[in-house]
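The material for today's practical consists of a large collection of protein records. There is nothing in a record beyond a sequence line and a structure line. Backbone structure tokens are a discrete shorthand for how the chain folds in space. Nothing more is needed to start thinking about how sequence determines fold. As an example, a complete record with its sequence and its structure tokens follows.
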Amino acid sequence: MTSNWSDQLSRVVARRSHPQRFVTHSNGRVVYLGEAPLVDVGPNLAALDRLRQIEDQRNRILGIYAPTAARIEVVPSDVIERLVGENEAMIRAAEVELGILPSLPELPEPRFDQII
């Protein structure tokens, strides 16, 4: 499928959609709303959906859509804990430097094996 072919197909589908051309039928009879026949929008909606499908396929062929690949990285918990500790230390140093918090002694890490 080339771009030229899809453009031509789009024009053909667009020419086929005219709201006054289709009327609603039920059991082989035309459905009326008052004096005028009820317009059937189903074929026009189908034509619009077909145009959307053609455009979507054209965009995929031409590579217009952004790539869908994702990068997934597994980070071990010890690395996360080390980075969190480094960030906390940097925040604490900035707070002390700015005078937001008084200098406090470092607290030891809690040991969970001693909790009863």
